[in-house]
């Protein structure tokens, strides 16, 4: 295991300077700090102040990484996680990435520094080899994110099946120009399980996937409004239905349809994802994919705690989605 003296030897700085850099002392230049931190990462050296102070007792803190605290999905998920963690004697720390890779990496390094006993990742924006190495080295549970064949506890619903069923439902009702709104980055849309389900349903009806119909957005009401603008700009080839990444975006599309006197679902059918409380009170009611957020959060927290305490993992419950039919499709 690397020591602070190893960092000093490789950088050429004294141990005192290394310590000052770690504590963000103003006497150490930004250039020196960068060199020191780069070498620390290279040597896999992280100061263990918290663990030393607690003498192996742990922090009883679990970090929960999310992209945006304003997203209702994360609000309900964190609520479920917190209740289970509290009952087991743990507190949670909510860490918001804003989809910024640097933020995410700093939060992962908190685990390496023993400032957290475990880390639940519901958002993953930086999948560089360095970050994956940090993930694999610690007590991590990844929730609703795809990490390929990495040997990391991974808990997720069957998103491919969910979007397949929703797309198939639209096709069976006669819709043929179906758009899909994704929150994924362009580099990841080809491995998105939701898009895979959407594509598979189109194939079942001998319809080619039109990538012009795959729209990338953040999950907000405002993004829903701009989505409709882009759909209408397609002219005669515009979609007659849209499957959306979240109920927030779907509600933005629906509200804009009302403003422009576009009939839903006659002119444009809309299906959301999550079945948030807003879905039921919209007019017409939002047809959406219900996912078991409460059960998901409870199970994620239980697995995380078992992982920290080196106990047997609990049996995985059935995390089934369900298409809830209302008025928009």
3D architecture notes:
The protein folds into three domains: 4-45, no CATH class; 58-98 and 114-156 and 294-318, Response regulator (Rossmann fold, 3-Layer(aba) Sandwich), CATH 3.40.50; 159-290, Response regulator (Rossmann fold, 3-Layer(aba) Sandwich), CATH 3.40.50. Helix 1 (4-11) crosses helix 2 (15-22), helix 8 (159-172) runs parallel beside helix 9 (193-204) and helix 10 (221-232) crosses helix 11. It is elongated, with a radius of gyration of 23 Å. The chain is an alpha/beta fold and 329 residues long. The strands form two sheets. Strands 7-6-8-9-10-11 form a six-stranded mixed β-sheet, sandwiched between helices. The chain has helices at 4-11, 15-22, 30-43, 49-54, 72-87, 101-112, 129-137, 159-172, 193-204, 221-232, 247-259, 277-281, 293-308, and strands spanning 61-66, 91-96, 118-121, 140-143, 154-155, 178-182, 214-216, 241-244, 269-274, 287-290, 322-324. Helix content is 44%, strand content 14%. The model is unreliable at 50-55 (pLDDT under 50). Keywords: DNA-binding, Transcription, Transcription regulation. Residues 2-56 form the HTH lacI-type domain. This is Sugar-binding transcriptional regulator LacI. Pfam families: LacI (PF00356), Peripla_BP_1 (PF00532). GO terms for molecular function: DNA-binding transcription factor activity; transcription cis-regulatory region binding.
């Amino acid at each position: 295991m690397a020591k602070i003296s190893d960092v000093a030897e490789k950088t050429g700085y004294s141990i005192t300077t290394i310590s000052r850099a770690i504590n963000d002392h103003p006497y150490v230049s930004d250039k020196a700090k960068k060199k020191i931190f780069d070498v620390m990462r290279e040597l896999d050296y992280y100061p263990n102040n918290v663990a030393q102070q607690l003498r192996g007792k742990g922090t009883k803190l679990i970090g929960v990484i999310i992209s945006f605290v304003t997203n209702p999905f994360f609000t309900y998920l964190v609520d479920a996680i917190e209740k289970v963690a509290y009952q087991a004697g743990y507190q949670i720390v909510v860490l918001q990435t804003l989809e910024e890779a640097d933020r995410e990496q700093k939060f992962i390094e908190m685990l390496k520094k023993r400032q957290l006993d475990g880390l639940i990742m519901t958002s993953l924006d930086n999948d560089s080899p360095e970050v994956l190495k940090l993930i694999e080295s610690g007590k991590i549970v990844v929730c609703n994110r795809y990490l390929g064949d990495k040997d990391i506890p991974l808990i997720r619903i069957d998103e491919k099946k969910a979007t397949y069923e929703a797309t198939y439902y639209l096709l069976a009702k006669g819709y043929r120009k179906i758009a899909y709104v994704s929150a994924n980055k362009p580099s990841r849309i080809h491995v998105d399980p939701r898009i895979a389900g959407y594509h598979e349903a189109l194939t079942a009806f001998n319809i080619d996937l039109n990538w012009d119909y795959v729209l990338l957005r953040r999950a907000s009401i405002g993004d829903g409004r701009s989505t409709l603008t882009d759909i209408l700009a397609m002219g005669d080839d515009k979609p007659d239905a849209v499957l959306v990444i979240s109920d927030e975006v779907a509600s933005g599309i629906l509200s804009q349809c009302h403003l422009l006197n576009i009939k839903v679902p006659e002119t444009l059918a809309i299906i959301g994802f999550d079945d948030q409380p807003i879905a039921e009170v919209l007019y017409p009611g939002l047809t959406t994919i219900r996912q078991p957020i409460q059960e998901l959060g409870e199970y994620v927290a239980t697995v995380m705690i078992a992982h920290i305490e080196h106990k047997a993992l609990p049996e995985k419950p059935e995390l089934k989605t369900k298409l809830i039919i209302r008025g928009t499709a």
